[in-house]
């Protein structure tokens, strides 16, 4: 498998889900600050940092936990990880 086969726009969630369903590897870094209306703020090393929840929600709705390298603690427990 060759890396960096294609580049997907950050807003192309359908393309991301399609790539995952086709067995491709996807890197999505939801660490951008899109402002208070589109971000949540959580402590990171004792500093409030902005993060988006869209990618996490979308992956949780469309990808099985065992296909996802990053999953919630609840998903990990359900899948025995």
From TrEMBL:
EC number(s) from the headed UniProt entry: 2.3.1.-
Where does the record locate the signal sequence feature? none
Q: Name one GO biological process term.
A: glycolipid biosynthetic process
Domain of life from the UniProt record: Bacteria
Gene Ontology terms, MF aspect? acyltransferase activity
Could you give one GO CC term from the UniProt record? plasma membrane
Which coarse location class applies to the principal site listed for this UniProt protein?
membrane
Where does this one sit in the cell?
Answer: Cell inner membrane
Q: Which UniProt keywords apply?
A: Acyltransferase, Cell inner membrane, Cell membrane, Membrane, Transferase
Q: What is this protein called?
A: Lipid A biosynthesis (KDO) 2-(Lauroyl)-lipid IVA acyltransferase
Q: What taxonomic ancestry is recorded? A: Bacteria, Pseudomonadati, Pseudomonadota, Gammaproteobacteria, Enterobacterales
